[in-house]
């Protein structure tokens, strides 16, 4: 089997690394530039979509979220589309734990002060501990379970929102999406871990910010449009919530003139919450596993279309 490694994955990691991993695991691999024909390959491993990818029999997206892919059109063609869920529990879980710890222990503020060589002590009651605080995890798939596990380890109470009311290990109460306002009402942290769909677009807006505690923090590691960003800015400015940790943004890169950059109680990261030095191996293992399934005549894992 011959894999094309699309250079768009350079956003996440060096394409050569996954090419080397695939070669070491039995797949011939070639790095291809955006816009090149991929008709001669058995699979294209890619970050983003472009029209030429329809030439290949199989496209594997290295991301979990597939919202930027025209999945309906893939379903109408002979090109199979797979994605990469199930590999970001630890990275995103730790990113969210880091943001929560920073807000509670005030690390972001002291790092800001460090840039000014300033020995500046906040009021003692600006700091709090995560133990016994409540986090509401919205979406209890791979990311959500990874967040819940780490929140449990930090002594937090965990509630969550999922589409079916099935109990989830480590989550004390599970709410349905229709009860989102109740789910988030008592939480010190609301963490978004849902895919971007018609149902989740702008699911956090003015009503939800009003339902949240005024000392609560929103953390978005899902997709930017899950949050109404104008309503978020209003909520931060009016004190409806205390702050936000944002890895995903409505427009990426976040425009340089966005007022979010200047907010003291906002931690911004450029959609890097899942990056890790083993990303290429995690993705490569998914491609190899599916290549082996094709060779055995079995159905593929993580197929979107
Ligand atoms: P997943 O499919 O394992 O889990 C998503 C969960 O959300 C599922 O359990 C699903 O049932 C649930 N869900 C869907 N709609 C819902 C709704 N309206 N209310 C409540 N729950 C709902 O996916 P995952 O790996 O956990 O990733 C989730 C999303 O996070 C991805 O689609 C992607 O957009 C985003 N993501 C971001 C990063 C990053 O770098 N920040 C990394 C990985 C994934």
From TrEMBL:
Enzyme class at the top of the EC tree: oxidoreductase
Catalytic activity, EC: 1.1.1.-
GO molecular function: oxidoreductase activity
Pfam families: 2-Hacid_dh_C
Entries under CDD domains matching the protein: 2-Hacid_dh_1
Chain ranges of the D-isomer specific 2-hydroxyacid dehydrogenase NAD-binding domain: 98-273
Domain of life: Archaea
Signal peptide extent: none
InterPro entries: D-isomer_DH_CS, D-isomer_DH_NAD-bd, Dhydh_Halo, NAD(P)-bd_dom_sf
Keywords of the record: NAD, Oxidoreductase
Gene3D superfamilies given in the database record: NAD(P)-binding Rossmann-like Domain
SUPFAM superfamilies, A to Z: Formate/glycerate dehydrogenase catalytic domain-like (SSF52283), NAD(P)-binding Rossmann-fold domains (SSF51735)
PANTHER family, sorted: 2-HACID_DH_C DOMAIN-CONTAINING PROTEIN (PTHR43333), D-ISOMER SPECIFIC 2-HYDROXYACID DEHYDROGENASE NAD-BINDING DOMAIN-CONTAINING PROTEIN (PTHR43333:SF1)
NCBIfam families assigned to the protein according to its UniProt record, in alphabetical order: Dhydh_Halo
Name this polypeptide is given: D-2-hydroxyacid dehydrogenase
Source organism: Halocatena marina
Gene that produces this protein: ddh
């Amino acid at each position: 089997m011959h894999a094309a490694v699309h250079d768009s994955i350079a956003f996440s990691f060096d394409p050569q690394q996954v090419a080397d991993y695939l070669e070491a695991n039995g797949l011939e691999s070639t790095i291809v530039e955006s816009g090149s024909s991929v008709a001669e390959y058995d699979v294209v491993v890619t970050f983003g979509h472009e029209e030429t990818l329809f030439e290949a029999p199989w496209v594997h997206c290295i991301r979990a979220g597939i919202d930027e892919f025209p999945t309906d059109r893939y379903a109408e063609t002979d090109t199979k589309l797979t994605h990469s869920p199930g590999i970001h529990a630890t990275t995103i879980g730790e990113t969210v734990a880091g943001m929560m710890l920073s807000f509670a222990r005030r690390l972001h503020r002291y790092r800001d002060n460090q840039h000014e060589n300033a020995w500046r002590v906040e009021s003692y009651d600006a700091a709090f501990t995560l133990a016994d605080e409540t986090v509401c995890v919205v979406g209890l798939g791979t990311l959500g379970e990874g967040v819940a596990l780490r929140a449990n380890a930090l002594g937090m109470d965990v509630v969550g929102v999922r589409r079916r009311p099935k109990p989830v290990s480590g989550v004390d109460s599970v709410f349905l999406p229709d009860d989102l306002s109740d789910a988030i009402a008592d939480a010190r942290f609301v963490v978004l871990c849902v895919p971007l769909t018609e149902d989740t677009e702008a699911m956090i807006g003015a009503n939800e910010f009003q339902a949240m505690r005024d000392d609560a923090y929103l953390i978005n590691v899902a997709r930017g449009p899950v949050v109404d960003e104008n309503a978020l800015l209003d909520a931060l400015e009016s004190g409806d919530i205390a702050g936000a940790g944002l890895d995903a943004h409505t427009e990426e890169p976040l425009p340089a003139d966005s007022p979010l950059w200047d907010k003291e109680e906002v931690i911004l990261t450029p959609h890097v919450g899942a990056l890790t030095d083993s990303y290429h191996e995690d993705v490569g293992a998914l491609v190899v596993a599916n290549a082996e399934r094709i060779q055995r005549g079995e159905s593929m894992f993580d197929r979107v279309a």
